[in-house]
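FAQ
Q: What does a multi-component entry look like?
A: The components come first, one per line:
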Amino acid sequence: MADNQPVCGPCVSKGLCGGKGMLTLKEGAWTSNPLAIQVLGICSALAVTNKLENSIVMGIALIFVGVFSNLFVSLLRNVTPHRIRMIAEVAIIATFVILFDQFLKAFYWDMSKQLGPYVGLIITNCIIMGRAEAFALQNPPILSMVDGFANGFGYAVVLAIIGFFRELLGSGEVLGIKLLSESWYTPNQLMILAPGAFFALGIVIAIFNAIKGPEPEEEKK
Amino acid sequence: MKGNNAYTLFYAAALGTVCSLLLTAASSFTAPYKEANREAEIKLNILNVLQVPYPEGATAQELVEVFKANVVQETKGELELYRFVPKAGAEGQETIGVAFEGPGLWGTIKGFLALAPDMRTIRGVTFYEQEETPGLGGEIAADWFRDQFKGKKIVDEKGNVGITIRSGGAKGGINEVDAITGATMTCDKVEAMLDEISEKIVQESGK
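Then the predicted structure of the entire assembly, as tokens:
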């Protein structure tokens, strides 16, 4: 692990991780946003976004798990036997997911009940697993943490956008505060139900892609 | 060295041990909080079914306080009763809650039955723990299903004890409610557990 140091050595003088930090941050949160561009991990994104509050907590959970699992996968990357690296990744991810779940159960019981199994299911979230496998295994710890944060943040922002509109249109409220009076707005139940989540996610993906413009080179895949 | 089996085994064991130690520590640290939350949740269910007024957004501790101040727990034979007697001038009406449970289609169903002081008239019913199929059997927890029970009796005109959950629609009997379409199994099981508890209530309260 001695080779970690030189890579991140010039952090202080040249910005985060020798300038790579900003790029990583931008990639995760914007140019290859896990939800809006790569369309990964949409299961939980569809399930918990019927309220903004749930979406925010889920986003925080993903940032937390992303940052710490990437950190530890990266720290251990040179000692982990190649054959069992995925098992090791899952063990690390699962540990942080369960820690977060226990924390919610102890201190935010109602939230924990509303999110139901979806916190636990972060273990199998392809964003987290994907970042561990594709990034943390090849990069130094601090940069991996940045990557975990960027992807978690990218996920959280999209979730919050969807959650905001679903709650606003579906129940006329945002964070439980009535914004659209029932006197002239009939809450659209569809937005609370699963199909509404598909519409909302589809529209968000379309908008993201429209702003970002077409893929410059179509060499991947 | 990274490729050999002994090392792989050692690594897996070490990682597993560290992770499980961490989780054990976290679990035992949060255990008392989780326990308190669970207890408050059960109390909250009782308060709801007995229609005891409590401040909105009350914390776990406040709920336990309200519960202590308003609800008296008593045992009658096999039955565990929760009696709510409103203080003079306070809102609410005297109601007795009885806990029941039984097997559902997928897992245990637990709930409370709230009765008027005559021990025959239903004030409400809740199913606070159930794993029935969402959208079908899971509808037992929905307001439309539970609200049907309000005002029904646990004994019909002829003195037969029990509730009838009738598929095809209730025919207006004093102990009949509509079944849930597509959830016959769940309805049968719920009916069975309500019959069982009704039987016990009738035995314990005489006649």
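Q: Is there any commentary attached?
A: Sometimes. For this entry: The longest helix of chain A spans residues 141-171.
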